[in-house]
């Protein structure tokens, strides 16, 4: 038995047999052909090339949402459609009598040599693209491809170098137990999808491919981030128990899909979903969430060299709106730190980025980008189920600036005769203490408030969430947080406006009932947590929770609060 | 088209342009140029000092490795040569949307 460490993407245990999904190796033989074979070799070249270009077209469609991946695939297609490629391979076959596979591989070696000898750093990364294209074409020409999921069954745990988003979906449909990759990151699109599907998965598991063999018995522990290969009997037994328990819990939760989220006393709570990328909508629909309480739009802007166009955004917003209808979708405008956008914006280095140019501040400093996003949202709202929300608001000033910009967007659209829908609800995120304190004014000037608890805790307690040396100062149950939420809700309700919570606190099953006791109107959680939180709502006795809440509100420390919560 | 596949010097368009985007001719601009050029029927070549490449070939355009400040000559020949040259030179002038 040995254990490897990886980064857990989704919690949960999976036990099964390892199935290594890799690329078959290519052994190119330097074969010469006879002159009467030239014709058939050229025919094969043309038909194989057509097949691969077709395949790329389908993949490009598949990557509808990821401009970055789509761009890569389009450049691959362009390499294969290059007239120079066609001419050179034809020449190598008909004049030098090389076999098709030899000719193709020779062409790619020639081109890579040219790139290797150039000292332009922006071109060197093309080498891996060339390798990818060459592999795609050659593996088809040489007929070494097989259906990667052919001998995979519901006992398999997939071991791979890396995984694409579409492959995660495919894997899920095959009822695979779990998967583990040598590379990859927790925040990739593939990981986000796996998480919303609750599929046990580890990424960045160093040494995986050299250590694990086909059919090895493996355990994926997505709770602690471990892969256990050839476990001992005792270890296996321990995990089997956990697995059965988790399985039972999961089945129990699935029974709740069709139930309304109401407390024991019958108070209905809007339970919505947070999504990071559009593909998660499938899980949202499956779990029958009552809409999307937070659609993050950062995925459109990060990890790329250019900006998304207004039309690109429009298409995505419209699709999400259509799929979610009749439920609503709250689209939040871009909310990142400037560092994430440094490749597209001129961002100067900041000494203190958490208190720097981020969230709405980026939008207000880059008005053309902000306007594009607003216009795309206004245009996409033909079903009238979209609401728009702004992050990192410190007070009414920003809200007024935003409204002015929205008015300009509307008159621009009108002037250009573009169809749009001007009656849209606007809301602000409450995550800065000053916004809490002036939440009466904010509620008066907008339609709804949504509390982002992660940042609210960070800014209230002045503690950087990612700084591990001070992590014990990050206390989500600090009494101040409960008091701030209470204050916000009271202010909003006085103005007849609703308050939602879309931060991690809403996903914490121990805290849900106190949030409800605080009279929060809506909770928005990640799709993978939806049913778990619904179960908590169903079990909530509001009267009882309110009694405990009173004690929480007069507690002096987080420790005192924790004690109340746990008794 | 003449059998030697050479451009007819009388009725083609030539235009000299300078690379003004800081990153020079890297993968993305190269892709943009080829994508735009292949929409037209005219032949399209790019010349840099003594090197002449097919402007509809991604490998050709990338191997130019043209850096910031270098001069290129665009040569188009065919029915829609004017439109082609216009679109491509605008891309250079707009720095391929980089800044």
Task: Describe the protein.
The complex is a heterodimer of chains A (567) and B (99). Chain A has helices at residues 38-62, 67-81, 83-94, 100-116, 121-124, 126-141, 165-173, 189-196, 208-211, 233-254, 281-286, 310-324, 360-365, 367-380, 396-415, 433-437, 439-445, 453-460, 479-494, 512-517, 530-538, 542-553, 558-566, and strands at residues 2-5, 7-10, 13-21, 156-160, 178-181, 201-203, 217-221, 226-229, 270-275, 292-296, 329-332, 386-390, 425-430, 448-451, 498-501, 522-525. Chain A has 567 residues and is of the alpha/beta class. An eight-stranded mixed β-sheet of chain A has the order 1-8-7-3-4-5-6-2. In chain A, strands 9-10-11-12-13-14-15-16 form an eight-stranded parallel barrel, surrounded by five helices. Chain B has 99 residues and is α+β, with helices and mostly antiparallel strands. Helix content of chain B is 30%, strand content 23%. Chain B has helices at residues 27-37, 58-63, 81-93, and strands at 13-18, 43-48, 51-54, 71-77. In chain B, strand 2 and strand 3 form a beta hairpin. Chains A and B meet through helix 2, helix 3 and helix 4 of A and helix 1 and helix 2 of B.
Number of domains of chain B: 1
CATH third-tier fold name of the largest domain in chain A: TIM Barrel
Helix content of chain A: 40-55%
Order of H and E elements of chain B: EHEEHEH
What is the global morphology of chain A? globular
Largest sheet of chain A: 8 strands, mixed
Largest interface: A-B, 21 and 20 residues
Tally of individual helices of chain B: 3
- Helix coverage percent of chain B: 25-40%
